[in-house]
Design a protein that fits this description.
CATH topology of the largest domain: Rossmann fold
Oligomer: single chain
Helix content: 25-40%
Strand content: 15-25%
Number of domains: 3
Bound molecules: S-adenosylmethionine, zinc ion
Shape: globular
Strand order of the largest sheet: 13-12-11-10-14-15-17-16
Radius of gyration: 26 Å
Largest sheet: 8 strands, mixed
Structural class: alpha+beta
CATH class of the largest domain: Alpha Beta
Number of strands: 25
């Protein structure tokens, strides 16, 4: 994906005019090599999930979409799902079932309809499962689509206490079902709405609690008017926040497009700017600030339970995933019990291993571990790095120093040339 990102450009200027697949307007891309432009699905890069592909110059022509469409979620279907949910909820846990094949909650007496799906059936659906569908639904972890990795309880609690201390009364969880579930069940002072591409959530919620939404083209995928739905949602209260956890590898430009649309709707309705919290790795900081100049990176390490690299077990470095926000960092208190402290000089909360450097004028660590100031580089660097004379900067001590190799080899070859000359003479 990193490679792809380097060579593929995404063009958001004319999104409204792009052809649509079942995930809303497609995105217009161009490849670095020949610059030829093409439209492709905004939600999925995996052709099995959505095979939409069209060269830009073909767009006037008819194109056939021969693929399995996602369901069409009409008001009628929503109503049916809602009444089935109520029916199932009224039953005892042992009489409730869920089919992973049909993505459906149903009463056990209807099991005959799922005989071919025996291995995909789950029974004993308790109340906790009904109110925490992310724990019931099989996580989808393809790298080219949803990438469903869930936060640890500690991380969820940290987010919630940040929202509470900011006095947030409405929250949009965009791709963050676990936070949404906890707030709906346990935090009565915050009103939360989940927006997500995973339509399996629909059957668990009324429409003010969940909308089937694509964050890469700002499109509500249900049969309704995107503008009206978003305007209703975004004009609710003054103190509104947005928590956005995009799938890994997703492009930032389309996300910036969606955030800008949200801001425009708030402005049109004379509401305060949204307090935004966007989750991405710390090494994307420069790219984030390029696309979203209002955002700064917080020191908080976001932990995941089911991600090999980004969870809190067996890792030595701590999660590289951070929160980016447009809120003044002095107001975003990070949990002392998780080893964060307030830096008076910086006027922001930082990780306890992050020491204030008076030469740089800030707490400079990015990866959550100790940095030290290098007088030659005139900046703070990772503690494990050493200043290399060949490279004229701090590097890993065991780096293959091409600079000193070049120098040494040119010294050697000059010496050899000298020897040859001597021999000739
Ligand atoms: C990395 S997971 C985040 C889950 C989160 N950590 C939690 O614990 O709730 C990404 C989330 O974004 C959703 N998602 C993926 N692509 C999306 C899209 N194009 N539009 C909206 N949501 C999307 C996934 O379904 C998933 O819920
Ligand atoms: Zn699509
Ligand atoms: Zn089934
Ligand atoms: Zn500091
Ligand atoms: Zn420094
Ligand atoms: Zn140095
Ligand atoms: Zn070197």
């Amino acid at each position: 994906m990193e490679e792809e990102n380097k060579t593929i450009t995404v063009h958001m200027e004319t999104l409204d005019l792009h052809p649509q697949c079942s995930h809303g307007p497609t995105l217009l891309f161009s490849r670095g090599t020949d610059g030829k432009k093409f439209y492709s699905c905004a939600a999925y890069r995996d052709k099995k999930k959505c095979p939409f592909f069209l060269w830009e110059d073909q767009s006037g022509e008819k194109y056939v979409q021969q693929f399995e469409r996602d369901p069409i979620i009409s008001k009628m279907l929503r109503y049916k799902l809602q009444s089935r949910y109520e029916l199932v909820k009224g039953l005892k846990p042992e009489d409730r079932m869920y089919c992973d094949k049909c993505n459906q909650l149903f009463p056990k007496i209807e099991k005959v309809n799922h005989l071919d799906h025996e291995e995909m059936l789950r029974d004993n659906i308790d109340d906790y499962n009904l109110s925490h569908p992310s724990q019931l639904l099989r996580p989808i972890q393809e790298t080219k689509g949803e990438s469903q990795y869930f936060f640890t309880d500690t991380t969820i609690d940290a987010f919630i206490s940040i929202f509470k201390s900011l006095g947030i009364t409405s929250l949009i969880c965009l791709g963050a079902p676990t936070v949404h579930e906890k707030i709906v069940c346990e935090v009565s002072e915050i009103n939360s709405t989940l927006l997500d591409i995973d339509h399996r959530h629909i059957q668990f919620y009324e429409c003010n609690r969940f909308r089937w939404f694509n964050m890469f083209n700002c499109h509500v995928l249900e049969e309704c008017d995107t503008e009206i739905v978003l305007e209703d949602l975004l004009s609710q209260t003054e103190s509104m926040a947005l928590l956005l956890d995009p799938p890994f590898g997703g492009r930032l430009e389309p996300i910036a497009y969606t955030l800008k649309k949200f801001d425009e709707i708030r402005k049109k309705n004379n509401k305060n700017i949204l307090s935004k919290f966007l989750i991405l790795p710390y090494f994307m900081e420069r790219h984030v600030i390029n696309c979203l100049p209002e955002m700064t990176m917080l020191d908080y390490k976001v932990d995941y339970v089911n991600h090999k690299k980004f969870n809190d077990s067996g890792r030595n470095k701590g999660s590289p995933i951070r929160l980016f926000t447009n809120v003044n960092q002095a107001k975003v208190a990070l949990p002392v019990e998780e080893n964060y402290k307030f830096c008076e000089e910086c006027d922001r909360w930082v990780c306890s291993e992050n020491f204030h450097c008076y030469q740089c004028g800030g707490c400079m660590s990015k990866n959550g571990r100790k940095y030290i100031h290098c007088n030659l580089c005139k900046k703070c660097v990772k503690k494990t790095w050493k200043h290399c004379k060949g490279c004229r900067k701090c590097c890993l001590p065991d780096h293959r120093c091409t600079n000193s190799i070049i120098k040494r080899s040119s010294v050697n070859s000059n010496a050899k040339k000298g020897q040859k000359k001597q021999k000739k003479n």
